[in-house]
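Appendix B, record 7
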Amino acid sequence: MKHISVVIPKGEIVLSCLDGVYKVFGTANTYLKESGEREDDYFKIDLVGIEEETSIYQGVFGIHPNRLIDQVRKTDLVIIPAISGDIGAQLQDNAPYFDWIRKMYSLGAEVASLCMGAFILASTGLVDGKSCTTHWLGIEGFEMMFPQVNLVPEKVVTDENGIYTSGGAYSFLNLLFHIAEKYCGRECALYVAKVLEIEVDRHSQAQFSIFRGQKSHQDQEIIRAQNYIESNVEEKISVEDLADMVALSRRNFIRRFKNATQNTPLEYIQRVKIEKAKKSLESSTETVNEIMYSVGYADGKSFRNTFRKITGLSPVEYKNKYNRHIAMNN
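C-alpha cells (predicted):
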C-alpha cells in the first residue's frame, strides 16, 4: 500500500488539485482491483492539516483534514496542492508545514508540488540546487524569492531525487499520471489517462505562457529601456543603443538588466518580439512572413528558431493550433 498525504494549506488553495488526486489514484485503485493485481486499495489518501478545518473560495467551500501533521509519523508521498492569493502571507501562515515536510522526506517519503504549491516546497529548502517548475504566472516572483533553485519554467513535470513538481493549472494531472506510472506501471497509468482523458507525455508548457514584462523592480533606467523595447517591437534594437539611451556602459547595462529582469537584454528583446508575434498569429490573417517582418525579423530561420525556443512550437504549428480564423473554418 502507498500512503499519500495531501497537505491542506491554510488560506486559498485550488480545489481541483484535491479532486484530481482522488480521481487519479482512485482510478488507479479501480484498475488494479479489476485487473486482479490487488484485492484491496493500493493507494490510501489522507488530507493532512495544521488546523481541523479550513475554508476556501471566500468561505464557499470548507475542507476538513482527517489528520493533523503531528498525527502523521510516516508516509510514502506528500502532495502540496496549488495555493493562490497573497503568496507571502500564505508562506507565513503555513510555516509549520516546512519542518514536517522535511521530516517526512528524511524518513523516505517522496514529495510533489502542484502548480503554485512549488512556493511551499521551495520554502522547505528541499529543492535548493534542484530542478523545479511552477505556473508561468509565478515565475518572476519565484525567481526573486528562491534564486538558489534551478527553475525550469518551460517544463510540465520535474522529477529529481524523489521530489516532483508540475507546471501551471491542470498540468498537475500530467504529474499525477507520471507518479502513477512510476508506482503502478505504464498499463495502469494509461488506463487512468484514458478514463480521465489526460493528454499524456506533454513535456512543455511554454506554448501557454504569456510574457508580460518584468517590472516589479525599482531600477528606473532599466524600466525605461524595457518600455522602449516594448514600444518599438518592429525595430531592430541593439544592446549598445539601449545602453547609450540610459547613459550606462554596455557591461553595466547588461548586468543591471539581468539583475532586474532575470533576462539578458537580448533575451528580453526576443521575448517581447515573440509575444507580439504570438498575438498576431492567434488573431491575424497575415502570413507568417508578414508577421515576422512586423516584429523586426528579416531572417526566417532566425525567427523560426527563436519562436520554437520560446514556445516549443514552430510559428506555423502555433498558428494552426491557436488562430481563431483557422479554428472557425475547421
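Remarks on this record: Residues 2-208 form a domain with the Rossmann fold fold (CATH 3.40.50.880). The chain is about 50% helix and 15% strand.
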